[in-house]
Amino acid sequence: METMTVAPAEPVVFDGLAGSFHAARGDTAILLLSPWGYEELCSRKSYRILGETLAARGYPTLRFDYPGTGNSAGESAGIEDERSWRDAVRRAFDEVGKLCTPSRVIVIGQGVGGALAADLASETDVAGLVLLAPVAQGRGYLRELTAWTAMTKPTFLVDASDGPQGGLMAGGSVLSAATASEIRSLNILKAPAPRVSKVLLVERDHHPGDAKLAANLLEKSVAVDRLPFEGYVDYVSNPTLSIVPVTTIEAVTSWIATQFPASATASAPTQGALPSTLQEADYEQTLVRFGANGMFFGVFTRALARPNETAFLFLNSGYDHSVGWGRSTVDFARALASSGVTSLRMDAAGIGESRLWPGQAPQVLYGDRQLDDVKTALDWLTGTAGVEKVVLVGRCSGAYLALIAAEADPRVTGLVAINVRRLVWDPDEDVETTLREPIQTLDTYRRKMVDKRMLKRLLTGDLPLSRVVTRLASAVSRVLDRKLAPVLRGASRHYRLNRIVQSRFKALRERGVPVSLIFCEGDRGVQDVQAWFKEDFSGLAPYENVELSMIANADHNLTPLASRAEVLELLRGFASSQRLRARK
Known about the structure:
This protein has 584 residues and is of the alpha/beta class. The chain has helices at residues 38-56, 84-100, 112-123, 138-151, 153-156, 177-185, 208-219, 232-236, 246-259, 328-338, 370-382, 397-408, 431-436, 442-448, 452-460, 465-483, 485-488, 493-510, 524-533, 561-583; strands at residues 10-14, 17-22, 28-33, 61-64, 104-111, 128-134, 168-170, 173-175, 198-203, 224-228, 277-279, 283-290, 296-303, 310-314, 342-347, 389-395, 412-418, 515-520, 546-551. Residues 438-442 have low confidence and may be disordered.
């Protein structure tokens, strides 16, 4: 669901807050308040589409990142003000008035953004309030985050207490003690009734908290309409597999249009470029749009200490938008800028703040079409930004894109691939199915066949024997194909794909492009490298331009802060080597 009838949102920076403004001619404006952390990663694209949909119906809309989150100023762990987020919401509410001089404002909030929206409406005259799966009680929300972090520790390798003292870590994102205290104090159930004429509550299926909130608002004599949050589970379950809740977006937009019709005689939207640069002591960060009709969004972090000779171009990991998992890419870019390294963090087409190419299919990962995205960014960097050389940096699918783009474009002078899952994709392989299914090897099945839970599922019929046999046959087939590749040659899948891998690495070696392959120990991408370059990695020896690094006690997403610090040092070292090569 891409809304192409309105221009892309214009980046805006105000009071240290970074946001996007969707201009429209209506006299009723919208302020969108986002969820936080993992939920925010899942919601970024949907919030962008919601803003575009509202603007197309005549509602100017502002979105922004809270202090210490997204592209806004500060570090989340360093916030000491227990009103930081609430005050930011009030500044954003005032900013809406400066951007489009509306006669009334509607506030929409999801998750903790719902709690902040209700808090604002309890003190400020707001025309309407839309609560999307809201946090009704901050204290309970923090308990849920703590429980979720404990449940996901086998995957993300962190405890809730691994954040700042007195704060919280969840899914790689951190809250300072002050922000945790601020969230803990939010309670819609005990707050004064919101000063609005109408509230829309978009409820999760069978969620007692949402039903309790509806009853509470009715007791306060607040007019409440209720709608189901269609597609909520698929929307917030995984950033990479998140499905835009189209039905819910349309329902919310229709409710607003019915309750608060947009005036057809409103003045023209704000003209001219909005401020989009955040100035810090040793770098400046600018939100940019580039490419055809400004379809791409990026964040250019310019080091003030050095000219823009070489820049890092950070590519998306899966569908995580340009801030990265747990805001790690923002941290990398700003820390590198403090060391004199300029960078651009971009959203590829169909991810986060960037639209799809006209006619492009929604599934964009691991496709050659993404080469056009990288080319457009390289055009901007080497043209508008005046950068001479570019190093591509990516993790997971972003690392794969960095690899194939480095081979394709001679302007790329360096490559850092972190936890790359595949060095080549079989054209006959369905990417989405593969992403959803865990890797299956003969060792996997050896372990499973002695697993009592596995045997119980087979005996009870919960796991069909046919499925196990099919997957086992597939694993056996891959092993045989690899063993017989020297004999079968072109008839072997492994032989054909190996030729592509070796060709890629030879092309980079011949151009003298340094390559840094960084893996967390045990990452599934390590097996892929071993498949093409031998189990002891000795097959990499002919490629003197390639360096392999392993990071202990880390997961695929680099959730532990110590693992990110280690990657940052590797990035700094790579940048230094680029400078030395440039001087020679």
